[in-house]
Fold this protein.
Amino acid sequence: MNKIYFMVSFLFAFIVIFSLANAECTYCKMNKDETCVFFFYGKDCFACQEVEPLISELEGKYPQLNVHKLEIWHNETNRQLFFKFCDVYCVNEKLVPIVFIGDKFLVGVEPIKNNLENEIVKCVDFGCPCPEEKVRNATVVPKLKLTIPIIISAAAIDSINPCAFAVLIFLLTYLIALGSKRKILPIGLSYIFMVFLTYFLAGLGLFATVETTGVSMILYRVAAVIAIVAGAINVKDFFFYGKGFSLEIPQSRKPLIEKYIHRASLPAALVLGVLVAMFELPCTGGVYLAILSMLANTMTRTSAIPYLFLYNLIFVMPLFVILVIMYKGVSAEKMESWRQKKRKYMKLFAGLFMIVLGITMLLELV
């Protein structure tokens, strides 16, 4: 019985060892005879379209070439794989088109056209590791993920917007003075809706532009610097409000806003919402730009839409609160007095958050 058990055990061990050895040899043969290339591109990317004919030509010229073509603008799985490749290969500018071959990567039209064939020849002659194996076996330091709590926190900070509050308070105050309390809800809601819609469409448009041009990493760094600078200006306003430059609606635009406030109609409220959002976006959109750049740097447009929607919903939530409070009978004077007293603290909290967010982005912790 013991002899039978020993023979069975020996036979099983032999089969396992033979299988592993054969698998290892098969992999070695694949590395020697086949050159693996990963080509990441974006749909409708003009630079990518310029490179693709060369890739196809090289595939026909070198039978050993095994090219993996992965679209990243509309495919979330490929996009995540792309970022992992970039992290492992220490790619600073995460742009397409990009090619990974052996231990090297080539970014952009000219580097690919000028150097890819030479790298292929080296790999064919001397062999080179498959990039997929390099990425699979690498240990990457995990970054802080862009989660829903981060989106909500950023939107809540960005929503602390004294100027948008002031426009709504003045609009509702004028309605009350005209004796049109019944118009408060429809006109107030129209104003809030247009602020939401304008911010949402602006974010979506910027995201689409970044996705099409492939400058997500450039925007990411620019947004980080803007967030820090804007945050510093807001902190300055806490101590020295009214001195130097401040992030608020330009004085030259205020007469136009006042004109639509005094019209106190539904169409005027819609126009007012658009104007306020447009005038304030360049001044107070530091947090929004930072979040947009994070989204563009980590996911596709389709995946980002729910996050943009949530962000902007949180962004206008304080305006809903002000509308309800004033509709319930709290005086405009009391609301404006509260806004004036809390304005510098709003700026302080927003400023500190923007500075921390910008530094975190520059250190590439998120």
Observations:
- The longest strand covers residues 35-41.
